[in-house]
């Protein structure tokens, strides 16, 4: 399975961006998709996960970020609204197989920079 993330860029505080992550290869065992982010000097943190009809978001993005899945395109999206400077980070998508505890596949990351 390969994950290709895109959509990052420079945006002003209060603005919006939509990240995309296209999954290719043998994807039928994947049941969970996640978005993570990492800022300089900080550990990678969970942004949101989607598994079946269940979604969960980090408290810091709850109400501002939304994940969605387009089955026809094998693509998971992260819609980010009301962006803040503290949202600046490299964003990674990840996928987990149905029997896995840890994430099996990771995208290459896409940089989001929010200017204040």
What does this structure look like?
Helices cover 0% and strands 57% of the residues. The chain contains no helices and eleven strands. The N and C termini lie far apart (37 Å). The chain has strands at 2-6, 9-12, 17-24, 30-38, 45-51, 54-57, 65-70, 75-80, 89-97, 105-106, 110-115. With 116 residues, it is mainly β.
* Overall helicity: under 10%
Q: Give the helices and strands as they follow along the chain.
A: EEEEEEEEEEE
Estimated structural class: mainly beta
User: Which stretches are poorly predicted, pLDDT < 50 over at least 5 residues?
Assistant: none
What form results from the Cα inertia axes? Answer: globular
Count of beta strands = 11
Strand content: over 45%
Task: Describe the main β-sheet briefly.
Answer: 7 strands, mixed
Tally of helical segments: 0
| Terminus-to-terminus distance | 37 Å
Radius of gyration, in Å, reads 13 Å
> What is the mean pLDDT?
96
